[in-house]
Amino acid sequence: MASYSTNEFRSGLKVLLDGEPCAITENEFVKPGKGQAFNRVRLRNLKTGRVWERTFKSGETIEAADVMELDMEYLYTDGEFYHFMKTDGSFEQFAASAAAVGDTKAWLKEQESYQIVLWNEAPISVTAPNFIELEVVQTDPGIKGDTAQGGSKPATLSTGAMVKVPLFVNQGEVIRVDTRNAEYQSRAKG
Amino acid sequence: MTHPWAPGGDLTGWRARAELFAYLRSFFAARGVLEVDTPVLGRVGVTDPALDAPTAEGGALQSSPEYFMKRLLAAGSGPIYQLARAFRSGEVGHRHNPEFVLLEWYRPDWDDEALRQEMDALLGPLLPGFPARRQTFGALLKDVFGLVWDRTGPEDWAKVLQAHWAQRGQEGDPVALAAGDELSLLEWLYGEACETLEAPTFITDFPPALASLATLRPGGATAARFELVVGGVELANGFQELCCPVTQRARFEADRARRAGLGKRDVPLDEPFLAALEAGLPPCAGVALGVDRVLMLMTGARSLDEVMPFSWHRR
Q1: Is B84 left (phi over 0), alpha (psi -120 to 50) or beta?
Q2: Cα distance between residue A102 and residue A121, in whole Å
Q3: Quick count: other Cβ atoms within 10 Å of Cβ A15?
Q4: What CA–CA distance (Å, rounded) separates B245 from B57?
Q5: Which residues in chain A are contacts of B179 at CB distance < 8 A?
Q6: What separation in angstroms does the CA of A42 have from each of A13, A58, A113, B59?
Q7: Backbone torsions φ then ψ of A186, nearest 5 degrees
Q8: A48: distance to nearest CA of chain B, Å?
């Protein structure tokens, strides 16, 4: 397995730390005055998303992680695993565990494209597109006379996600949602 | 495999670099300081335990032009400056590049405060906040950590450092990282303290153990070494220069012992440099300023990569 020395550290590098796949998000080489050098490295655990800082002795090496980021289309769930397919025409499929899918479960829509992180050929995280269009399957009827301004109500979407929508949005309509903060954006066009 | 070829930055940045070089040269020309040019590939590297000069066929790439420039001073050059390429192995980061530009200059018969005043004059037109504040090494550590460095020891330094890191959410054990080199703990504390300094500040009067190539103040309690810190970034390191060949040789030998303790490769002494001190280096003050870092602060860049057309990863 390949390894990286601290002077090869840079953001985006995928490394194995305490057996966990991580991405370096920031590398600061620290060498005050005439002192010994060390590296202050900010890392993101690719499985949990946790970000932390760690010091490395300059010249230390760490193992590279066999990590790839790919776009894949969501197919279906068998109740235990979530199945995705590569979009490169290979039709190659991958099964992601519930742990890998995490909170993205609320945004899984068939035929939509997701960013999958593969570690040693297995999905470890699934990220939804920033915006997604979903049908409102349940919401209370809007109150007559209400317009575009002010007021919101809860709505359940086809994926099971709950979002706040303006009062004028009706059951059966398709809306555009920002998956990063679960905020309503607009009614879907066309 | 693609081969990215494009330089970093843009034409505005490359012009800013050229203009800065022109300004520095005109500043020294107006003051009668002679521009000199010394080898980048020297016979030997540097004994400083914190520095590693890249070795090359025929010797080592110089971590600073200091020894050659002092040989010129000993030969009667008078005041001199150089825009030198300097090399330091393994130093890669936002504020470090293994190859960089040092502006180094020497003022015979000046003391270190006179040189700091010239630095104020040089940098005033380039960066806000000059003339810079002056603060001693001791006062800085007292201010930031409430620590009196000469009445505490390595265990105290490690504790304060660990607490400071923990507070910032940084994992790491300073003692393990220092690998038995206790002075490193003091130097890291100093580095952390510098990062808190926004306004331009000269840190003066270093502990004698960190004197490097500076002479000791009368009484020997502190060394006449100073650094300039701007926006938390170290810009320059200067000395009232050590002229005594015997003390210099002893410091080189102490460096070698510290290198051996750290498991670093041994570096032979620069004998021609020591011979120049024997012949007589005039009393002088000298300083080295990181030109790329000045450019970084001038342009508000976050990383050296934005002000160097070909930084380490772009070569």
Answers
A1: beta
A2: 18
A3: 21
A4: 29
A5: 57
A6: 11, 15, 29, 37
A7: -170, 175
A8: 17
CA distance A94 to B68: 63
Q: Which residue, chain included where needed, has tokens 């000069």?
A: B53
**Two tokens, residue B105:** 């200059």
Half-sphere exposure for B144 (CA within 13 Å, toward CB): 23
Asked whether the predicted pLDDT for residue B1 surpasses 80, the reply is: no
Q: A6 and B90 in contact by Cβ < 8 A?
A: yes
Helix (H, G, I), strand (E, B) or coil at B112: helix
Residues of B (96-155) whose Cβ lies below 8 Å from A: 96, 98
Q: Dihedrals φ, ψ of B171, to 5°?
A: -80, 140
pTM recorded for the entire structure: 0.80
| CA B298 to each of CA B129, B262, B310: distance values in angstroms, whole numbers, following the listed order | 12, 37, 19
**Is B205 touching A (CB cutoff 8 A)?**
no
Residue A148: pLDDT band with limits 50, 70, 90: low
Contact B313 A10 (CB under 8 A): yes
Q: Which tokens go with A136? A: 């409102």
Domain B11-132+199-314 CATH assignment equals 3.40.50.300? no
pLDDT tens, position by position, A27-38: 888 887 777 889
Q: What are the structure tokens assigned to B73, written together?
A: 């001073």
Task: Report how far apart the first and last C-alpha atoms of chain B are (Å, whole number).
Answer: 16
- Token pair recorded at residue A160: 């099971």
DSSP annotation of A128 reads -
d(CA B223, CA B241): 10
Which residues lie across from B85 on neighbouring strands? B101
Q: Domain-by-domain residue ranges, chain B?
A: 11-132+199-314
Report the chain A residue with the minimal C-alpha distance to residue B233: A32
Sequence-distant (6+) residues with CB within 8 A of A161 are A106, A107, A134, A177, A182
- Band of pLDDT at residue B182, cut at 50, 70 and 90: confident
**The token pair that represents B242 in the structure block:** 């050590």
- Report yes or no: A119 and A21 within 8 Å, Cβ to Cβ: yes
Nearest to A176 by CA among A132, A127, A128, A113: A132
Nearest CA in chain A to B232: A32
CA–CA separation, B297 and B307 (whole Å) = 10
pLDDT at B169: 83
